[in-house]
User: Fold this.
Amino acid sequence: MVERVAFLGLGVMGFPMAGHLLRAGHATTVWNRSPARSDRFAAAHPAAVVAPSPAAAARGAAFVFVCVGRDADVRDVVLGKDGALGGLGSGAVLVDHTTASAELARELEGRARERGAGFLDAPVSGGQSGAEQGTLTVMAGGEPAAFERALPILGCYARRTQRLGPAGSGQLAKMVNQICIAGVLQGLSEGLHFAEAAGLDPLAVVEAISQGAAQSWQMENRHRTMIERSFDHGFAVEWMRKDLGLALGEARRNGAQLPLAALVDQFYAEVEAQGGRRWDTSSLITRLRKT
Amino acid sequence: MVERVAFLGLGVMGFPMAGHLLRAGHATTVWNRSPARSDRFAAAHPAAVVAPSPAAAARGAAFVFVCVGRDADVRDVVLGKDGALGGLGSGAVLVDHTTASAELARELEGRARERGAGFLDAPVSGGQSGAEQGTLTVMAGGEPAAFERALPILGCYARRTQRLGPAGSGQLAKMVNQICIAGVLQGLSEGLHFAEAAGLDPLAVVEAISQGAAQSWQMENRHRTMIERSFDHGFAVEWMRKDLGLALGEARRNGAQLPLAALVDQFYAEVEAQGGRRWDTSSLITRLRKT
Assistant:
């Protein structure tokens, strides 16, 4: 079914995601904070309509997607002056793809409900390449009815979409994902650093151990660039710090103990201090002296 | 080619490994510290010869395999009274499958060389099931000539055998493996614990995230038993502590920094203190309160 949709935020994730909606035939209105990016999008997708504000984009749309940077950005785009909420129609569904706090998700669901609209928090994983190839994973929270309605359209850019519970649950699941990655990457960093310090060929060691109990996606996909200390790709440290900050903040409320995630967050602060804000998260290894 | 071989140490790993040598037709003499275990082996493998001492087992063997617990056990079995070294013939190859220190490997190579014999340190990964199924990974250190000679016979129980460098390199590679696992398991423990504390269904979260950047062998193979807090299987905490101790000791010498491995070693000390010496390593999650 062809839908009228709005997509707010045309960053490295949102730009290709909105493109998939257009390619699937949906009548798509876009908005981006910096107009240059919207213009570039319109040039690439002549069928796209560029709106002057989030509210204007949202007006008349059955689904309003948001994919921006942080909680404060979501608040601006949805709840601020000319925000999407003002244009959100009764019966529409607001879908926030931003990785943000679970608290914000609960608040947004309440505000959407006041307008007779549904809401899903729906952070994604899979990175820029997943967005471009339409193979993202969507972790969703919200009412089952809103989820069922959104499911077909999310399939335009997601290979896997799962509802984890009420509003906020998608954000909480994304936090679990990032906590697991923090452990994998710190272990892998120490392992490769130890191999170098011990005089081993780290590539040969990875070849020997990469099929067994130490195997991980990160080992398979990042060991080579970690050994080369090449980090101009992937998921940036500043975003990982944002995500770990969300997890650590949530843990303060729910009482979870996260000693490793807290430590890795501090290690990433050191990577940032040495100029690595935009480096891939596997740059965690740079904290450890290269021998 | 059928060889005369000796296998010293019929524990959970050595018992099935020696069995594979017999099934491949090699003339196999075995020895074990506790004779009951040798008797059980002989009952299961009528072609096996049980020797009264490591020296007697080694006499006339082209390959002498050792698979015991710790450095001190290897010293007893190889260098002690009636140890394997006394029976080691010129031209034989001593292969130590024990996970032990790199220093010991270098010492054993020197002692074997004095007798005109070769040496390989050859710790394995793959666990009891890998030993039983003959699908172990062998990480080897030593002279290329010794490695080439041993390679076909190691194939009786290994799916993958790799030489990483001179004597000690196999042990160092195994340490890298264990360091990586420590990170994966602590991250996974905190992730599942956080999911529980946040009120999510941890099984559903794993289903959502297990195909992406957080994926690991441990996540795939241990998440269910971690959620169930069932640890009567797998690789025991006391052995992981031994291995982390080897890595931390080696890091003192080579200057590597292992903040996470050091922390996880302490966490395992807490697991041991609550009675978990024999639990699987994934019991790291028990340090974190179950909500």
Chain B touches chain A through 73 residues (CB under 8 Å).
